[in-house]
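Hey L., structure's done. Input below.
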Amino acid sequence: MFVETGRKYRLSQVIVCNNKNRSNNEVNMLRSRLTQVASAAQRAFSTSPRVLAVKQMTVRDGLNSALDDELARDDRVFLLGEEVAQYDGAYKVSRGLWKKYGDKRIIDTPITEMGFAGIAVGAAMAGLRPVCEFMTFNFSMQAIDHANLLKPAASQSGSLLLRQLPTGLNRRPPQSIGDRQLPFNKIIESPRSTWLTEINDILQRERVGEIIAPPLDKSKPDKMEAARLIVIRRRKMKKHKLKKLRRKMKFEWAKVRQRREMRKEKAFQAQLLSQIKQAESFSAEQYVAETLRQANEVINSAAKTFYMSAGAVNVPIVFRGPNGAASGVAAQHSQCFAAWYAHCPGLKVVSPYDTEDARGLLKSAIRDPDPVVMLENELMYGTAFPVDEKVTDVDFLVPIGKAKIMRAGKDITIVAHSKAVETALLTAAELAKKGIEAEIINLRSIRPLDMETIFASVRKTHHLITVENGWPQHGVGAEICARFMEDQAFFELDAPVWRCCGVDVPMPYAKTLELHALPRVQDVTEAALKVLGGKARAK
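Output:
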């Protein structure tokens, strides 16, 4: 449109050039009319439906604005975590909040999840409303066992000390293995103390460094001179003996030090061999099982305090951060914790997909009186979604425990959460090309689950697929399947429920393997066609 406006201006110039003989009034009139046309075109452009469409907002900005609103609304709300203040957060979610609210509301913590998670839980018990940010929920496992990892059991301490052994020639071995004192910890009696005592005694008796002879008195007989020479000779002999003693001490002490170091080295090697043997018999499964039974800041402290205090102590806290597979971070940083935390009563678990979910669920989580775990996705932070005016409102909330129908359909229901919703929507677009109308449900909340919305959809479609990026065993999809088996809605199904999950292996690092380890659009499309069976072929 701006190009058209330029064309009109150029056209006016041409007209002016071709009509030089016209009066100035006619030229000015023509020019003003062309200007009015151009202005009308610009106004039409500025009020066109495309421009008046809802604005775009990234998930990152949605989270940032939600935190800003709640920090301004309630003085009890504060944010703590690694790099959330001066660095604006690892993913820039808290950008600008530290400059606005200061150190008391936006708190940088050391890299110790077990520490600041405990601080946040204690602050929530005291009446504050902390928002505890994990740089990734894979690090939240450090907060699973807060106290007991600092004091491991005697049966485990040997294997744990194996990671703490110092290195170098002058290393000092650990003080104990379990409850047994090592032999090299005993004080070795050294002859050095005896030699030093002897030397001090000699130095106290006479000053060896100075040979002070009686003055020569020629008036006395030669017998006195002979006595003086005898004294000098004796002193020289003592000095010579002292030098020999020092040389002997130095040599002997070197041998003693060598023997002592050899004893230390042998004791250290024996301890190392003992620990290696203990490590060989160490069962990782037993250790994990024992650790998970011990104290837990997120589970035992946050989730169970309200019940254990008979409703007297609330823990209004939010644990938030990126969850699930990112890209190129391999096995230890690609886990989905939705099923982990949803297993525990007392916690509420939410999993947003788009900007509306992120903003509304975070505000609801901060205002909720119970502990809430908010599982975000790193890959969605920079994705922009359309939002209308109600989403940007200060009091906009998304209720916890309520799913959302992202796309209506009548042939098959696809349930997903977090980034898997994107896969489900793309699958629905592919199925639409085949004449299949899929209904997409965004769970939003993992605990509690909105099963009523899913039941109502299946009563209409009679087919169900669940999509998630987590592992299949005991996952969110498995829970939905079990709920259907226990409800009358089971008789509405025309085919078994199909689960599309991540491959049941640790996340590989290789790019091609990583892509195949998560549900893809073609995988969900193929599953939908199998579930529909003859109905899909008929379409």
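The CA atoms of residues 407 and 524 lie 16 Å apart. The mean pLDDT is 77.

-- N.
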